[in-house]
Sequence to fold (244 residues):
Amino acid sequence: MNKIGFYFNCYKNNFATDNILNIIRNFYPNNPIFLMCDNGNNFTDIAKKYNCIYYYSSINILGGKLINGNRYMGFSNSTCLIEYLKILEIAIKMCNSEYIVFMEDDSILINHINNFPLHSGGDININYFESLLTEEGFKIFKNKYPYAKFNYWNMAGGSIIHCQTLLECIQNTNINDILFFDKYSTHPLGFCHMNDIALSLLLLINGKTNEKWTNTTKSNILHPDKRFYNKNLTVSDGVFRNKI
Fold:
């Protein structure tokens, strides 16, 4: 079993994806990389170039939603969340690694990863979680999950999760336990409007711990870092995902 595997959600930014994969391979030439495209460009050639496990989903998982004339990037509906969790299970099994690191087009690896958390590591913001719920919803959350290690951590690009921990959380959690909090969300798209927030909740309600990890010398991963978000690229070159 490998110590580290990588999960990389790409879309239409060929330029950034190619560069990020090149950097990863400079440090980890043989570790498994699960490259997943959610109904964007065809990344088959790039996947072969960097020896990635390639998965293409016909569902635009982060396709977003139009609400009151405003477009929001994130899960369009519960189908997207279900698809995302299904693909994570596949990635864990195919990578066969102890930990999985979440990479995006704006996550830059600058050196080898030095330390590993017990369950997960991300970018912690203590106060943000509570702000995502109404006062009523926050009380319900604390009563429903009294064992939760309560804080918020952003499981976005550059974060890391222990694979067996994540697998157990997915398998032991009913999707309705996550969607339940949408009715108490302070965000128009819903409490679990983004993959990083959904993962945070999944770990939180299962009583898992986290450490500050992203943007530290433990991870040696910078996020967000937009150096490869070249706005002068044409569509054929690859464009970054717009916040729709």
Observations:
- The mean pLDDT is 90.
